[in-house]
Design brief:
- This protein is mostly helical.
- Helices cover 46% and strands 10% of the residues.
- The chain is built from five helices and two strands; from the N terminus they run H-H-E-H-E-H-H.
- The chain has a two-stranded parallel sheet with strand order 1-2.
């Protein structure tokens, strides 16, 4: 799955860090704690995201019922990097 990305300098170290910190594991407790804060929360997902499937998003919605959700059209998982122009309108509206 990550064969192409491993050619990018630093990617292997980043993946190792994610594994060591259990970032790729179940984050449900962290989201539940986030839901207890009074701050507004915005969740963005690209509609072509193959890394975070829709069923995981539905679980996230249950854990963060007060959050605002925006699905970015024709956007992959890393749309913040690949399509930042699609991110800007949602951020501007959220922070306005």
């Amino acid at each position: 799955m990550f064969r192409r990305q491993l050619a990018i300098p630093g990617f292997g170290r980043m993946m190792l860090s994610l594994l060591r910190c259990d970032t790729l594991g179940d984050q449900g407790d962290y989201y539940a704690r986030l839901n207890r804060l009074s701050n507004p929360v915005l969740v963005l997902r690209g509609d072509e995201d193959t890394i975070m499937p829709r069923h995981q998003l539905e679980r996230l919605r249950r854990l963060l019922p007060r959050a605002d959700y925006v699905e970015i059209e024709r956007a992959p998982h890393a749309f913040v990097i690949s399509n930042p122009e699609k991110l800007a309108p949602s951020l501007i509206e959220f922070f306005a």
